[in-house]
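tokens incoming
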């Protein structure tokens, strides 16, 4: 069965049923007061006291001033300070300075700190559905996932599930499409993937596992040495800009384009009570500054990647595409992963069904527009 049919049959039937009940004026009317961020502003009746400085302790999962992700958060904090006339001070704590990198979710949930900047797929052990908000192999691009989040059901579903952990998420950036990774040897067929030890986390890792790869999780600081010594055969990381800084091209020169993380979301998440206690002006400033962070970080990833790709090519690095049988096996594997996780967890099924409905429409639109345009531009 085709992937789209497989993903959408059940969910799409419901959607078509709902749509067919709408008349044209229903479809055109957009009630902006129901936009999740607008609602939180409208509900607030607490105002800022400019004589009293409010401090937010925000921990990240990144090293201090880490390129793009870390510096983006630094800039966000500065913008909040400027816009609030210094009445709101966001103190950014790099990973492991106040809270360990992967303990920021629990520390914010319990109120030990006020907020964190990280990525939702790190918390899949709490609820497998959280990994879906980071993106799905062969799923939504950065632009599409932002559309689904802000104007579709994404942010509503995310907030509903995070509310159970006393958390309130906002969009905090997007890596854009990630590269398939660095391989010590070329991949000429699916056979070459079998038994390969590869550092690849999340739904991408689960998908690769079904294709015969042994996914390995390693701390960032150990990846290069493991690759150099042949402890692992391959690694994915992010894209040209951040990958080049890691030096992988020196020890695993076969660089593949990819489909496992087509537009990974980063999050800015608050403790719910702390968020509720903020003055409405401060909430509005955070919402605007985080929207800018989301947009700027996405743009910066895109810009730095375009600049760095040519530097990698100057070093003799060529870009490869996975062979057709690898891509076909990946598409089949991701269907199996989504079905299995959906059968175990109703939250996962609810979110993945909603993404599937949006993806189906987004594919039709991109075929008619961007895909067509890029083919012509590049021919
Ligand atoms: Ca990655």
């Amino acid at each position: 069965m085709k992937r789209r049919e497989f993903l959408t049959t059940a969910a799409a039937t419901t959607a078509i049923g709902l749509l067919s009940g709408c008349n044209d004026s229903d479809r055109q009317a957009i009630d902006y007061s129901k936009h999740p961020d607008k609602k939180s502003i409208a509900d607030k009746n607490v105002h800022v006291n400019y004589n009293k400085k409010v401090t937010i302790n925000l921990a990240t999962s990144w090293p201090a001033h880490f390129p793009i992700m870390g510096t983006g958060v630094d800039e966000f904090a500065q913008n909040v300070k400027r816009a609030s006339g210094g009445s709101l001070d966001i103190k950014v704590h790099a990973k492991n300075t106040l809270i360990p990198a992967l303990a920021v979710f629990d520390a914010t949930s319990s109120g030990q700190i006020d907020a964190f900047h990280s990525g939702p797929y790190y918390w899949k052990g709490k609820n497998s559905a959280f990994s879906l908000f980071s993106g799905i192999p062969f799923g939504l691009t950065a632009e599409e996932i932002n559309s689904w989040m802000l104007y579709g059901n994404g942010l509503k579903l995310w907030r509903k599930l995070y509310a159970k952990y006393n958390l309130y998420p906002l969009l905090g950036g997007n890596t854009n499409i990630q590269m398939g990774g660095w391989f010590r040897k070329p991949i000429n067929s699916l056979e070459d993937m079998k038994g390969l030890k590869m550092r690849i986390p999340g739904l991408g890792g689960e998908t690769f596992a079904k294709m015969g790869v042994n996914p390995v999780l390693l701390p960032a600081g150990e990846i290069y040495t493991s690759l150099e010594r042949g402890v692992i055969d391959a690694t994915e990381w992010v894209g040209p800009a951040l990958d080049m800084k890691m030096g992988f091209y020196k020890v695993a020169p076969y660089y593949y384009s990819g489909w496992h993380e087509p537009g990974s979301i980063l999050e800015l998440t608050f403790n719910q009570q702390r968020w509720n206690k903020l003055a409405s002006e401060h909430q509005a400033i955070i919402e605007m500054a985080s929207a800018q962070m989301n947009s700027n970080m996405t743009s910066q990833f895109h810009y730095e990647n375009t600049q760095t790709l040519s530097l990698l090519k100057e070093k003799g690095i060529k870009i490869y595409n996975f062979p057709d049988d690898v891509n076909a096996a990946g598409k089949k594997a991701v269907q199996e992963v989504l079905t299995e996780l959906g059968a175990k967890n109703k939250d996962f099924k609810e979110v993945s069904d909603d993404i599937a409905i949006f993806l189906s429409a987004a594919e039709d639109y991109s075929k008619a527009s961007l895909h067509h345009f890029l083919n012509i531009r590049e021919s």
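note: Residues 5-30 have pLDDT under 50 and may be disordered.
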